[in-house]
Automatic annotation (TrEMBL):
InterPro entries: Leucine_aapep/pepB (IPR011356), Macro_dom-like (IPR043472), Peptidase_M17_C (IPR000819), Peptidase_M17_N_1 (IPR048816). Belongs to the peptidase M17 family. It comes from Thermohalobaculum xanthum. Residues 321-328 form the Cytosol aminopeptidase domain. PANTHER family: LEUCINE AMINOPEPTIDASE-RELATED, PEPTIDASE B. PROSITE patterns: CYTOSOL_AP. It holds the Pfam family Peptidase_M17_N_1. SUPFAM superfamilies: Zn-dependent exopeptidases. This is Leucyl aminopeptidase family protein.
Length: 474
């Protein structure tokens, strides 16, 4: 599954200029400059475009024939500036259905636009065909536009494809053991070290919350711990929520809310995809990846509403909803991460429905006390078209997560500010300000350019851009 997708992305990333003579030119046509663009074509080509009703709408495409009946060039609609701001990866719509061949962008673009166009092409070529006959479509490649690092984009696409593959896989084949196997495979590829603590050994190692959430499942809960890089380099720790399926526990979800819960390990999958980007690009940092991998199941061993659990950090937590389990497993992992005092901790989790209500499925809310980090992330999000928005760690809501009978409440009553109170809960387990929490959705509800319906590695590319800027590449 993952290997095939990654190989396709790599192949699509970098076609050399040696093939330029055999490649098909792509002319981008802005709808607000349609007549100017058509005037630059041969008269027969312009007439063909008009006869076929081509108006330059964003993502629309039209192949212009040559004298032998082949494709002389392709016109791709580039819309208006306002439409391009609203829709990322406009070239991805043509890439999704492009006939076999090698294409090149003939229209000059500034470096940022060219990179987005090339990446949109790559991301649009993804397919998840593990459980059906592979779709028959051409091998369409894009020559690397001038000024774009094609090798880098290929590695980024590999990381995105890895995350998509893991999230798209059903829970019967992507439980805690399979997630561990995926981490092992990634560590072997990059020469990383990996250790796993599972089952009752979690109690001996003082990870009581991870054990409590996962103990009801047929597959043992576990904590995956991977490290890579020079031991003397600045340490960055990534923590990913790995709830491989979430029934809600004894506070069981209705069927309508359980349908997409295979993606509740989207934080772990995205962290692994980001880790691949970091390691394959050789960032000059020491990387640690922590993934609490569990299934929130129902059995006689389930933790219960009203239970009071003690965390690795020693803080006690009253369980007021067993469906607020993600913050529990993250709490133990964040406490472990903080013990090593890394330069930066980032956690990623499909944590709250409140985040979707606030910002929808495309924009990722993130939380941090570090204003410099927040500014860097916000700039990177715009630069690489990976949207996110800083949300407040509002101190006025701290009392909502303090139940009185214990130190913390995992599910404050009332339902208001749910994403914020979840972030405030996590912050209690982090002993530094250089921390950011991403409440991702990890899913594209309906297909868009560069983003097929299904799994998505949200925020990973923006985080990578910040890490590249801060630590550099070997």
């Amino acid at each position: 599954m993952t290997d095939e997708s990654v190989e396709i992305s790599s192949g699509a990333a970098a076609e050399t200029s040696d093939e330029e003579q055999a490649s098909v030119p792509i002319t981008l046509v802005a709808s607000d400059k349609l007549e100017e663009a058509l005037a630059r074509l041969a008269p027969a080509e312009a007439a063909w475009a008009r006869a076929n009703g081509f108006r330059g709408a964003l993502g629309a495409s039209l192949a212009l024939p040559d004298a032998e009946g082949g494709i002389a060039r392709v016109l791709v609609g580039w819309g208006t500036p306002a439409e391009r701001r609203r829709t990322r990866f406009g070239l991805g719509r043509f890439a999704d259905t492009a006939p076999s061949g090698i294409y090149r962008l003939e229209t000059p673009l500034d470096p940022a636009e060219a990179e987005e166009a090339a990446l949109g092409w790559l991301l649009a070529r993804y397919r998840f065909d593990r459980y059906r006959k592979a779709s028959e479509r051409g091998e369409a490649h894009l020559a690397v536009p001038e000024g774009v690092d094609g090798e880098r984009l290929g590695k980024i696409a590999e990381g995105v494809f890895l995350a998509r593959d893991l999230i798209n896989a059903p829970a019967n084949e992507m439980g805690p053991a399979a997630l561990e196997a995926a981490a092992h495979k990634l560590s072997e590829r990059h020469g990383a070290e990996i250790g796993v603590t599972s089952g009752d050994a979690l109690l001996d190692a003082n990870f009581p919350l991870i054990h409590a959430v996962g103990r009801a499942s047929a597959e043992a809960p576990r904590l995956i711990d991977m490290t890579w890089g020079d031991a003397d380099a600045p340490l960055v720790t990534l923590v990913g929520k790995g709830v491989c399926f979430d029934t809600g526990g004894l506070d069981i979800k209705p069927a309508s809310s359980m349908g997409l819960m295979k993606k509740d390990m989207g934080g772990a999958a995205t962290v692994l995809g980001l880790a691949h980007m970091i390691m394959s690009l050789g960032l000059k940092l020491r990387l640690r990846v922590l993934i609490p991998a569990v299934e929130n199941a129902v059995s006689g061993a389930s933790f219960r509403p009203g239970d009071i659990l003690r965390s690795r950090k020693g803080l006690t937590v009253e369980v007021n909803n067993t469906d607020a389990e993600g913050r529990l497993v993250l709490a133990d992992a964040l406490a472990l991460a903080s013990e090593e005092a890394p330069g930066l901790i980032i956690d990623m989790a499909t944590l709250t429905g409140a985040a979707r209500v606030a910002l929808g499925p495309e924009v990722v809310p993130f939380y941090t006390d570090d204003d410099t980090l927040a500014a860097d992330l916000a700039r990177a999000a715009v630069r690489v078209s990976d949207p996110m928005w800083r949300m407040p760690l509002w101190p006025g809501y701290e009392a909502d997560i303090e139940p009185g009978i214990a130190d913390l409440d995992n599910a404050p009553a009332g339902g208001m500010a749910g994403s914020i109170t979840a972030a405030l809960f996590l912050r209690r387990f982090v002993d530094q300000t250089a921390w950011a929490h991403f409440d991702i959705y990890a899913w594209t509800p309906k297909p868009k350019p560069g983003r097929p319906k299904g799994a998505e590695a949200q925020a990973a590319r923006a985080i990578l851009a910040v890490l590249e800027q801060r630590y550099g590449r070997s």
